[in-house]
Amino acid sequence: MFLSAASRPSSTSSLDSLFQYIEEHQDEFVQQKLGEWVSVQSDSSTPALWGEVERVLSMTADRITAMGGVVERADIGAQQLPGGQSVRRPPVILAQFHMDPEKATLCIYGHVDVQPAKKEDGWDTDPYTLTELNGNLYGRGATDNKGPVLAWLHAIETYQATSQELPVNIKLIIEGLEEVGSDGLEELTQRCKDSFFSDVDYIVISDNVWATRRPALTYGTRGSSYFFVEVEGPKTDLHSGVFGGSVHEPMMDLIALLDSLLGHTGKILVPGLNEMVAPVTKEERKLYEGIHFDLEETKLETGVQRFLQDSKEGVLMARWRYPSLSIHGIEGAVSIQGPQTVIPKQVVGKFSIRLVPHMEPATVERQVKEHLHGVFAQLNSPNRLRVTSSVGAWPWLADLKDPQYVAGCRAVEVVFGVEPELIREGSTIPIAHDFHKVTGKSVMMLPIGGHDDGEHSQKEKISRYNFIQGTKLFVAYFHELSMLHKSLPQIQRNI
Question: Catalytic residues, which ones?
Answer without folding.
Answer: 113, 178
